From TrEMBL:
This is Probable alkaline neutral invertase D. Keywords: Carbohydrate metabolism, Glycosidase, Hydrolase, Membrane, Transmembrane, Transmembrane helix. The chain crosses the membrane at residues 18-38. One of its GO terms (biological process) is sucrose catabolic process. SUPFAM superfamilies: Six-hairpin glycosidases. GO terms for molecular function: endo-alpha-N-acetylgalactosaminidase activity; sucrose alpha-glucosidase activity. Coiled coil: none annotated. It comes from the Eukaryota. PANTHER family: CYTOSOLIC INVERTASE 1 (PTHR31916:SF59), PTHR31916.
Length: 125
């Protein structure tokens, strides 16, 4: 779907949902988001998520998760300097710098798949 035509962009919706989840769980899911973005040809979404993570996580001491509706508060039971938060960030950063690393986490059958981005059937020129 073309967001300039109908105003709906499914990747932006996914981005907003995943960023909210990323804020809630720290950087554990960051590498999964990065892999999905690379596979679908949208690395700019992963780049933005990594920028947000860099700004928050290192300043807050790499917590496990954040609390609150907007993810502003470090979780009450969250431990700091968690290896999975740090490693999730590092794997995402390395995958974005060199997308060939995606092969280490992707399934074999994924190599044959090519993302198909189509316009909506209601789209007209």
């Amino acid at each position: 779907m073309d967001p300039t035509i109908n105003g709906f962009n499914p990747f932006m919706l996914l981005y907003k949902v995943l960023i909210f989840r990323l804020i809630m769980v720290g950087a554990v899911l960051l590498w999964l988001l990065t892999a999905a973005c690379i596979k679908t040809g949208r690395p700019q979404i992963a780049r933005r998520a990594i920028e947000l993570a860099e700004a928050r996580l290192s300043k807050d001491g790499w917590p496990e998760y954040y609390d609150g509706k907007l993810g502003r508060y470090i979780g009450k039971q969250a431990r700091r300097y968690q290896t999975w938060s740090i490693s999730g960030y590092l794997v995402a950063k390395m995958m974005l710098e060199d997308p060939s690393h995606l092969g280490m986490v992707a399934h074999e059958e994924d190599k044959q798949l090519k993302p198909v981005l189509k316009r909506s059937s209601s789209w007209t020129f």
